[in-house]
Amino acid sequence: MRHLSSHPDAYGVFASQCAAGSQGSAKGCATVAIKDCLDIEGLVTRCGSRALADAAPAKAHSDVVANLIAAGCRILGKTKMHELAYGMTGINAFEGTPLNPHFPDRIPGGSSSGSAAAVAASLVDFAIGTDTGGSIRQPAICCGVIGFKPTFGRVSRKGALPVQSSLDCIGPFARTVGMIEQAMGAIDPTFQAEIFEGPLRLARLGMDVEIEPRMAEAMLAVRTDGDGAIKDIELPLLDAAFKAGMTIIARETLLANIALLERPELLGEDVRKRLEGARNATDADMAEAENVRVRFTADIDALLERFDVLMTPALPLPPPRLSEASDPAKVLTLTRYLRPFNLSGHPALVLPARTVDGLPSGIQLVAAKGADARLIAIARRLVEDNPIFQTKE
């Protein structure tokens, strides 16, 4: 059993599960941590919940784990997460909350908190998380690393919980764009890296009253080289898409976990309340949410026919302090710019930066469906051309 540090649980990795499934044999192969909603043969997939702690061990690897092993990666452990992947803070009373390595008084973010923290602490080369409403991208920014949500359906979800989702994507965290690219090649055998050489046509989301000005600093500082162009645009359906994503995740998470409400004492209070509240999502609400999905997706598809990439802020406000994490006003809008692209299914990547007063911030880049490799190549270009980003190859 390999311990990742002298305090192996501090950054969200289960020491008791280290080295599980680590069959990669290549010397110097990439080391990886896996979010605990993905099956590793012989281990219980707990999803951060006491309610699943006594479940039967997984009988087989999830597809993503099998692909990592086939690629020669070494899996060092499973990471803590927000219970049932249904929260944005990463706070977990059952397993403990992962420490945010660079911002220890701030939340690590959710729901892939342990994966983001393990990468930020340099315990692994990259980590795998899942993203249903910003659950890779938001903790990536909270912890100061890169997070990537692939095109919906690109990476197999076989062996992932929840089993059914119209929003959820599996993707990587890393400290460099190059490692994100390597991670994608490992989890998706069809992935082929690209180089972006042409002039960059970049659509930049216009400023609005919902964002703290310092959280837009990184986006406004971005420059393109050569003949590149940046044009400000508006997304009239952004807030409707955010709300629609909230409605759909509520209904789908309730359906996936409704049996757990038979023993509510085994659930964390925050997750139990969210599941109970999800009962209020009506069929009419779902129909309207699906209508918004169609319209918003069409808008983004059309926009990305004219531009190579869409750029938004990553977060509308700084990640709250741990002491503020129970305040809805500090938490509920954190995924305002992230969640809509789960609804639409477009690939999205976040690059970390810091505000002038040193708080975690960054940008989000969104590309056309299927243009995952091109999006990563564009991210590399922007990192090379813009010193504001806290990542270097």
From TrEMBL:
This is Indoleacetamide hydrolase. Hydrolyzes indole-3-acetamide (IAM) into indole-3-acetic acid (IAA). PROSITE patterns: AMIDASES. Belongs to the amidase family. GO terms for molecular function: catalytic activity. It comes from Rhizobium straminoryzae. InterPro entries: Amidase, Amidase_CS, Amidase_dom, AS_sf. Residues 32-375 form the Amidase domain. Keywords: Coiled coil. Residues 272-306 form a coiled coil. It comes from the Bacteria.
